[in-house]
Amino acid sequence: MHISYNEIHQAIADCVEGKDVYESFKPTLIIAIGSGGFIPARMLRTFLKAKCGKSLPIQTIGLVLYDDNLDKYDPDTAVVRKTQWLNYSHGEGTGISLQGHNILIVDEVDDTRKTLSYAVAELTKDAEKQRHEYEARRKEGEPEWQQPKLGVFVVHNKIKDKKGSLPADVLESRYFKCMDVPDNWIVYPWDALDIETHQQRADERRAGERAAKKAKVDGDQ
Predict the structure, then answer these.
(1) What are phi and psi of 139, to 5 degrees?
(2) Over its length of 221 residues, how does the chain's per-residue pLDDT go in tens digits?
(3) Which positions make up the signal peptide (predicted)?
């Protein structure tokens, strides 16, 4: 299933507006899961800026699903591994604190949910570690730790049984999906070697979907 840049751009715009992403969560920090979440995160920031009037900071993390079976990838046995993570050190002003942030984790697709589950779990552990460190050095009269909140934003959610899980509070009110899609292989435009051919195939798919929808409407009349 070939997806075009225009489709992704419009889907994110519609989701931000239709699901009140900013109004309901008020994100203050975007964390993009690499590499599929990079471009959606940048698009998302544009539409959030239209809501809040400022460009939200984007941090990146790298996660891969690794399978020891080199002959055939198996989602049941694949495990998530870090290839890049946030810098929490305070040297030279480059470190980041999670305290008080409403963090929106962005990926292109919620497939098995293993990657998203891992990201949320690891960031939750990092926040707890930061809380302990903050409380240990907090002096009398200084403000108490402000717990960060985590949310998830994906372009596509595949309709399938998930191998990973997300906290109930995230799923209930801080899980934003642009659209549900069947469990088919998705080809994103940033993976295309020939973008014109990719666009043509995306257009053909959309034309087929419109024709099928029209045929169904005509058949129901």
Answers:
(1) -95, 160
(2) 999 999 999 999 999 999 999 999 999 999 999 999 999 999 999 999 999 999 999 999 999 988 776 566 777 788 999 999 999 986 556 689 999 999 999 999 999 999 999 999 999 999 999 999 999 999 999 999 999 999 999 999 999 999 999 999 999 999 999 999 999 999 999 999 999 999 999 999 999 999 999 898 888 77
(3) none
Q: Virtual CA dihedral for 132, 134, 138, 143, nearest 10 degrees?
A: -110
Question: How far is the C-alpha of 102 from the C-alpha of 170, rounded, in Å?
Answer: 12
Residue 67 in tokens: 């399978």
The rounded distance, in Å, linking the Cα atoms of 4 and 50 is 23
* Token reading at 25: 């969560």
Q: How many CB atoms lie within 10 A of CB 111?
A: 22
Asked whether 32 and 106 are in contact (CB, 8 A), the reply is yes
Residues with a catalytic annotation lie at 111
Residues listed for the chain: 221
